[in-house]
């Protein structure tokens, strides 16, 4: 609770400082860097290139998913058919809506944790209405559980698919993911858990949809967020460094890691982690071994994060060509490596945005299919 009150205080200060700085600084180049002094510690917050103001005008109450009142549909109108499997938050079933005969997927929450249920529903609803987002059909409950009902798509586990995807398939997959993300970000939402398991694929039509809003959040300048989001391998440097003012760009880093898996055809494309320190430190080592120690230190400093790098060797950044071999070279043309490098920048502000990435020459051969 104490921590929460502190957040509110800092939040207030940041907002004040933010409005002030943005008025004062309209003519300086670094108008989006804010330092807030609070008991000697300074919070550095950097605005994203796009959609920084997507949630402007919304009150704390509007942004509080816990306020949601759920309208439940008719539970007995659904028949649960086959169990497909369990995820972090629940169980998924294939099912049917009796009144319409529509095929659906029913995701049942394991326990009645209302806050996480509401979180998923709110963000799901915020991003509804786009081709690349799986549509929510209904929300149903019985006495013991709550379930979300989605239109059913023919899907193939993307985590398997990326191992065998062709160069063209890689492009289609990545392009649609970025397009979906640009839309999600334009709604002021950070997905928060981008990974192959959360992108469903129809291998015939080559159409993909983004799913799983269980870790999503609103982006509001200066509003601190819990840095415990995402799935380890896909976590960005700012998340590993536990920076609380991260933005949409954590999703791009996650896409970057997925892209590396796709083109290098390796589940763990940047192998060679030494078992040093805590888990998050091991992941930082893994990144530093590829992108260099110095850059990681610099970005930690820029965010004013106190991270001990004393047991980090001074890794030099490596050329991504190092990961290209006879088996994967057909996916790793220089355009691909260039885009990958841009997605995996340490500094979220220098990391390419989804909107800009869609214009990258890597997609020149497939872009017309989506225009
Ligand atoms: N609309 C859909 N059509 C077909 N299959 C779907 C659909 N939505 C979800 N699935 C399947 O259900 C699985 C679980 O969905 P989701 O990711 O939303 O739940 P989760 O509990 O968070 O799972 P995880 O822990 O694996 O992320 C997905 O990996 C996917 O295979
Ligand atoms: C913010 O703080 C950092 C480090 O304390 C400093 O280098 C930088 O100049 C400050 N920026 C602004 C805009 O005050
Ligand atoms: C709920 O669905 C069942 C099965 O389709 C139907 O018989 C029933 O009339 C529905 N109830 C309501 C309130 O619509
Ligand atoms: C659900 O709970 C209510 C109230 O306790 C009860 O009347 C009803 O029979 C229960 N329904 C089921 C399907 O168990
Ligand atoms: Mg999932």
Automatic annotation (TrEMBL):
Molecular function via GO: ATP binding; protein serine/threonine kinase activity
Domain of life from the UniProt record: Eukaryota
Record flagged with keyword Transmembrane helix: yes
Domain Protein kinase: 78-363
Alphabetized SMART domains for the sequence: S_TKc
Cellular component terms per the entry's GO annotation: cytosol; nucleus; protein kinase CK2 complex
EC top class, as a word: transferase
Documented EC number(s): 2.7.11.1
Regions that span the bilayer: 7-24
NAD recorded as keyword: no
An individual GO BP term: regulation of cell cycle
Entry binding sites for ATP: 107
Reactions catalysed, as given in the entry: L-threonyl-[protein] + ATP = O-phospho-L-threonyl-[protein] + ADP + H(+); L-seryl-[protein] + ATP = O-phospho-L-seryl-[protein] + ADP + H(+)
InterPro entries to which the protein is assigned, alphabetical: CK2_alpha, Prot_kinase_dom, Protein_kinase_ATP_BS
Protein keywords: ATP-binding, Kinase, Membrane, Nucleotide-binding, Serine/threonine-protein kinase, Transferase, Transmembrane, Transmembrane helix
Official protein name in the record: non-specific serine/threonine protein kinase
The species this protein was found in: Paramecium pentaurelia
Lineage, broadest ranks: Eukaryota, Sar, Alveolata, Ciliophora, Intramacronucleata
């Amino acid at each position: 609770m104490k921590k929460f009150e502190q957040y509110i205080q800092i939040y207030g200060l940041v907002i004040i400082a933010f409005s002030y700085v943005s008025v004062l600084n309209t003519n300086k180049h670094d108008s989006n860097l804010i330092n807030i002094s609070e008991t000697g510690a300074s919070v550095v917050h950097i605005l994203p290139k796009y959609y920084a103001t997507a949630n402007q005008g919304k009150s704390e109450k509007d942004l509080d998913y816990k306020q949601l009142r759920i309208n439940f549909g008719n539970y007995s109108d659904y028949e649960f058919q086959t169990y497909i499997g369990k995820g972090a938050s629940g169980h998924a079933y294939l099912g049917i809506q009796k009144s319409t005969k529509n095929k659906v997927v029913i995701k049942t929450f394991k326990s009645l944790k209302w806050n996480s249920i509401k979180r998923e529903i709110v963000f799901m609803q915020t991003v509804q209405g786009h081709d690349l987002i799986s549509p929510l059909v209904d929300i149903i409950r019985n006495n013991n559980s709550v379930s979300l009902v989605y239109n059913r798509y023919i899907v193939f586990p993307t985590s398997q698919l990326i191992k065998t995807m062709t160069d063209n398939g890689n492009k289609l997959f990545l392009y649609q993911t970025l397009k979906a993300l640009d839309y999600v970000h334009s709604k002021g939402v950070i997905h928060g858990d981008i990974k192959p398991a959360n992108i469903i694929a129809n291998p015939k039509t080559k159409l993909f949809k983004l799913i799983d809003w269980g870790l999503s959040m609103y982006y509001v300048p200066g509003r601190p967020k819990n840095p415990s989001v995402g799935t380890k391998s896909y976590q960005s440097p700012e998340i590993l460094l536990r920076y609380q003012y991260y933005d949409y760009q954590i999703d791009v880093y996650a896409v970057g890691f997925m892209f590396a898996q796709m083109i290098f055809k390796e589940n763990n494309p940047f192998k060679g982690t030494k078992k040093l320190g805590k888990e998050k430190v091991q992941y930082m080592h893994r990144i530093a071994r590829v992108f260099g120690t110095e850059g990681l230190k610099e970005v930690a400093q820029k965010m004013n994060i106190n991270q001990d790098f004393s047991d980090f060797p001074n890794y030099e950044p490596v050329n991504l060509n190092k990961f290209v071999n006879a088996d994967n070279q057909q996916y790793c043309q220089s355009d691909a490596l260039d885009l990958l490098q841009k997605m995996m920048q340490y500094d979220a502000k220098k990391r390419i945005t989804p909107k800009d990435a869609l214009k990258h020459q890597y997609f020149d051969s497939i872009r017309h299919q989506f225009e």
